[in-house]
Every structure is written in C-alpha cells, then in structure tokens.
Amino acid sequence: MAEPIRKPRDFAAPTPQNTPASASSVKPPPRPSQPMASISEDNALGALANNPALLSMIQGRLGTLVGRSSGYIESLPSYVRDRLAGLKGLRLKNAEIEADFQRELLELEKKYFKLQEPLYARRANIINGEEDPSADEIEAGKAAFEEEEELFGEGSDEESEDEEESPEADEAKSAKRSGSAETADDACDDDDEETMVGVPNFWLTAFRNVPGLADTLSDRDDEVLRYLTDVRLKYLDKPGFALEFYFADNEFFTNKMLTKTYYYQDEVGITGDFVYDHAEGDEINWTSPEVNVTIKVEKRKQRNKHTKATRTIEKTIPVQSFFEFFNPPQPPSLEEEESGEYSDFLQEQLESDFDLGELIKEKIIPRAIDWFTGKALDYEGLRGGDDAEEFDEDEEFDEDEHEDDTTDGTGGAEKPAECKQQ
C-alpha cells in the first residue's frame, strides 16, 4: 500500500524562530474585504476550472508524490528493517510456490482439453452437416432444453402457463429446442428441414448473441462470417494459446484458416499469474479492396485546371470490423513503457484485445450452443429485464418526441440479438 503523502522536510510555517530579521519592516498584507470563511469551495473550484493550466500543474505535482516513500521505513532501526527483509524473503518463496501452481494448472488445462477435442471435432461435423447426432445425444439435449425452460422460462411474459398451446405454437417450440429461434409462422416444415444442411449460420448467430463481441461486428462482417465453419483453441508449447477460425470457400479472401495467437511471458508475475506479452494475427488475403470489410473505398474525380483532363482517385478509409481482430495493437517498447510515452488509448486497446481473446477461449468455444440459443445470456445474467436500465432523475425526457415509441417490457433497453436461422 502506498505511503501517506507527507509535506517535504524543508517545509516550515513562519514562527518567531524562523521569521526573517527584516520582518519588522515588511508591511502586513491588506485585510480582505470579506471574511475568509465566506470564500466557498465552489468559488475555489470555479477558479481552477477557469484556469486549466494551473489545474494541470497541480495535478502533475500531486501525481509525482504518489508512491513516493515517506521516509518511515528508512527511519526504522536496522534490526527492524532486517525483519522486513526477512518478510520479503518469505514472500519470494511464496511466489515460487504460486508460480509452480500456475504451471501445473496450465498443464492440467491442456490435459483435459485433449479429452474435449474429439467432442469439439464432432460438434463441427454436426454443424457443417457431415454427421448427425446420435439418439442418446438428442435425448440428453432435449432434457437439458426442458430444464432451461423451467429455470429461465420461455422468454415471454405474455404466454400463460395454463393456456392451451396451438399446434403452430408446439411446432415453434420444437424448432426452438432444436436450435432454431424462428417463430411459429416462420417455422420450417419437414420438407424444408430435409434441404437444410447442418446448422446454417451457427457461429454468426452465436457471435451476434455475445455482448462485447457483437459490438465489433458490422453488417458487412455478417456476409463473411456466414462462411465460418469452426472456431478452435490450441495451446502452445510455451505459455500462450491460439484461436483458429476455419472458413469455407468464399469470394472475400483466400485464407482457409485465420489464426490469432496470444503470447505470455516465460516467467510468471509477482502475483503468481502468467503475464500477457503480445498478440499476433494472420494477414488476410482479400481478393479485392472492394470486398475488404475493414476498409471503405471512396472514389473521387479530379480535374486539371490547365488541361481540363479528369482522373479518378481512390482513397481507403478504415472502418470498424471484427476482422481487425487479426491486426492486434502492439504493446509499447521497453523505452516507451519506462518513459510513459504511450497513450491511455493504446493501453485500452491492448486490454480490450486480450479480453476478447479470453472471452472466445473461455466462454464461446466451450459453450457455443448456449450462445447460439441465447441461453448463455441467462446463465451470465446478461439478458435485459424490467430493471435493465435505470434513468437519471435529472435526465430530461421529451414526451412529445417519443409519444409514438413502443416498449417491449425491457425498460427501454435493447434486447440481445435473438437466435435466427438465416
């Protein structure tokens, strides 16, 4: 814990002992026209707010005091400081045990992941229509769907439990249990289901249901992610992991697989955890700039003032896209880190990129079916409800402007994306 901020040692208030000899000749300052107590804190804060340079200087000075030693430890007797050194030695031994624990835990994760890999491979085959689930797997899944419906409900408060359901509603519920989120009117009949291979748009639908990940997807990304056939995890020989995205043949890029690799430092940190080092992503071989969803191509015509000839120039502008995931931000160099010459924005980018990789590794890959059906939102407590959004008492609301708006019972919050078969 940081030592308390103390006044410098050379600070001393004027006293009879340190008052300058010429003090008697110094005229006292004029008395204020109003009592000092009447000067409010608001006036002082207002003065600082009107002087950004002064405020910045004060903040900078205070920032230099944070973490500085108060001199207390140095003032202790040597035999007490030796005890502190001994405590630090114990802490280092403890850190060694924590490091061994993290290494063994990583090996344990790898061991059990090997047992899960055949299940992930079978999942991919079912999604892509190369295999069908067994009767036992279907029965176990149906039982799990029914338990989730009892636990979380059907997701509609308008439907009465005692109301007798129509055949159309039964058909819609069956479609939902099988992984489809279509309504009764849009439910596929038996003939249509026979022509549907595997589970179309499985990963696109799952991604759209994940808060945080869905925010990175654009409408143009959707067209590309329809070709995503599988997402896999691979552990590295050294600390770290790789995320592998497999794609069917498409008109957007020639890559069959795109990989994003996260590397950790070889040695664990002082807390005993592995320390993130950097990430690397594959280069995407787009077939043309027009289909590159990470940029927007603008064409403009220019006319020569002298010859009157015209020419067309193209300008590429970066746009938000999920596929920027494969072009990760790079951490600052050692010199930049020591000098602090890198922006907070870069730090936020690095943290967001790492968090997204961990989200895919820890939650999306193991529980892809739950994100596809949207039930993961219930397990994670992320589905909006009546209390999903609270309004500030001071916030103004124009009733005339919103008088025609309708609510959906979620308190005005936008509902998570529903699972849909495209």
Automatic annotation (TrEMBL):
A Pfam family recorded for this sequence: NAP
Chain residue ranges for the region called Disordered: 1-43, 147-193, 382-422
One BP term from GO: nucleosome assembly
Biased composition (Basic and acidic residues): 1-10
Classification via InterPro entries: NAP-like_sf, NAP_family
Highest rank taxon of the organism: Eukaryota
Regions of compositional bias (Acidic residues) in chain numbering: 147-169, 183-193, 387-407
GO cellular component: nucleus
Listed Polar residues bias regions: 15-25
Residue stretches in coiled coil: none
Family, as annotated: Belongs to the nucleosome assembly protein (NAP) family.
Protein name: Nucleosome assembly protein 1
